[in-house]
Amino acid sequence: MTVKESIGGFQGFIDSVSRFNTLSDWLAWQETLHPVAIDLGLERVAAVARKLDCLQPAPVVITVAGTNGKGSTLAILEAILRRAGYRTGCYTSPHLFHYNERLRIDGEVIADADWCDAFARIDALRGETSLTYFEFGTLAALDIMQRDTLDVALLEVGLGGRLDAVNIIDADAAIVTSIGLDHTDWLGDTREAIGREKAGIFRAGRPALCGDAFPPDSLRQSAADVGADLQVIGRDFHLRHSGKRWHWQGRDSHYQDLPWPALPGAHQLANAATALAVLEALHDRLPVTESAVAGGLKWVTLPGRIQVLPGKVEQVLDVAHNAQAALALVDALRHRPLSGSTHAVIGMMRDKDIAAFVEALRSQVDHWVPVGLDVDRALPPQQLAEYLQQARVEEPVTLSPSVAGALETLAGRLQRGDRVLVCGSFYTVAEWSALDINFD
Asked: Per DSSP, what are the bridge partners of residue 412?
């Protein structure tokens, strides 16, 4: 029997015993499979990955961790590498609109049937091993990628780094974009503790890039302990900008007069600079031209990251949900002055630092609209209003049971020149986007 016949026979067996036929049924079941939603650790997921033989999803693998900036950095890398002619696989989480978005092959999202086939293979091979929703999805993405013919796999690390399911992969290079306070129940409540967890994706003798100009000592020490080749922005690679152009200097190469990334916000320069640093570190295996770099920067897109929808009433959609991200959002808004008022439609998860988020954002808000979300972890709008009261905000606060209700609340209040700012979580932005609002 040939290898092809063996694979075909196994796939036929999978098809015959597949637990579900639709992606929605698979995902609903996965949410109930494991006793807890988050169960950090690599032993269970690595055991199943070995059975799947998916620990090398592409000839070159880059992992990206960090409090903020992971999705943007991955999108920039994907855009540049695709412009350079490479076939990419890009795994990110969470999704904004549809689960399929979590994996793109050569820029295209994966179809329901491919996800279902991967889930069936995992289910058939896992035996009695219980997996979380995130672990199932990560294994499926790795399985789909290794069955394709990729040049490079780009993997977003979910929660933390050291014990995240993605860290079963020994990446050729690893990035930590930034270190801030988030997921403190799992990662610790100091930058030192969080930095140590995120540095867990570094590997001995391999490039380790940090896009935080002031990383905690724990990250530096962790890199030294494992023997990774750590490069830090502002120390080992640099950027400077003038007008609408910017310049990058690495260890052995430089780029002059680059276009700004198409993603809004000055903070995207640090993400772009870090992406260029990892490409320089891997230039022997993934050479890119300056035209590919420039084209990728101009071409990159990512919904929900300071996404501006112009109109008589401007809409700004941002998935920011911690203080560090809120400060980046505030900086971007300050560069977009408007004649009217800013109405903040805000829905958040209860495990976030709500007080710090509100404090960071308050200078840009004229009217707060806390909303309810149909998610177990969501903070009720009444409790969000209590945080605003504790922060002694002077702007008016209007509660809404839902995102759709917020639109009804604002309908008679909005005037030409106003802005609606939608933020606080992926769920909030997704629900607002689904309303497909046009204020023209």
From this structure: none
Residue 69: which of 250, 266, 361 has the closest Cα? 266
Query: Phi first, then psi: what are they for 141, rounded to 5°?
Result: -65, -45
* pLDDT the model gives residue 160: 80
**Is the C-alpha dihedral spanning 428, 434, 439, 440 positive or negative?**
positive
At position 87, the amino acid (one-letter code) is R
Asked if residues 427 and 321 have their Cβ atoms less than 8 Å apart, the reply is no
Q: Is 320 strand, coil or helix?
A: coil
Output the six-digit token pair for 379: 């903070």
Domains of the chain, residue spans: 3-299, 307-434
Nearest to 311 by CA among 340, 268, 347: 340
Which strands make up the sheet holding 307-309, listed edge to edge?
307-309, 314-317, 419-423, 342-346, 367-370
Residue pair 400/371 in contact by the 8 Å Cβ criterion: yes
Fold for the domain defined by 307-434:
Protein-Tyrosine Phosphatase; Chain A (3.90.190)
Confidence (pLDDT) at 18: 77
What is each CA distance from 25 to 11, 282, 301, in whole angstroms? Answer: 20, 40, 30
Per-residue pLDDT at 183: 60
Structure confidence at residue 7 (pLDDT): 45
Only one residue has tokens 């609903």, namely 28
Distance from the Cα of residue 69 to its chain's centroid: 7
This prediction has a pTM of 0.91
Which portions of the chain are predicted below pLDDT 70?
A: 1-17, 182-188
CATH 3.20.20.140, domain 3-299, yes or no: no
Bin 151: left if φ > 0, else alpha if -120 < ψ < 50, else beta.
alpha
Residue 400 per-residue DSSP state: B
In angstroms, the CA 187 to CA 196 distance is 9
Instruction: List, in sequence order, every beta strand (DSSP E) within 264-405.
Output: 307-309, 314-317, 342-346, 367-370
- Two tokens, residue 195: 């930095």
Q: Are 175 and 211 a contacting pair, CB within 8 Å?
A: yes
**Angstrom distance (rounded) from CA 273 to CA 255:** 10
Extract the tokens encoding 423: 């933020």
Asked if residue 266 lies in contact with residue 331, where contact means CB atoms within 8 angstroms, the answer is: yes
| Res 3: pLDDT | 37
Distance set, CA 258 to CA 238, 249, 298, 312, 318 (Å): 13, 12, 9, 32, 25
SS3 371: strand
- Three-state DSSP at 350 gives coil
For residue 417, the model assigns a pLDDT of: 96
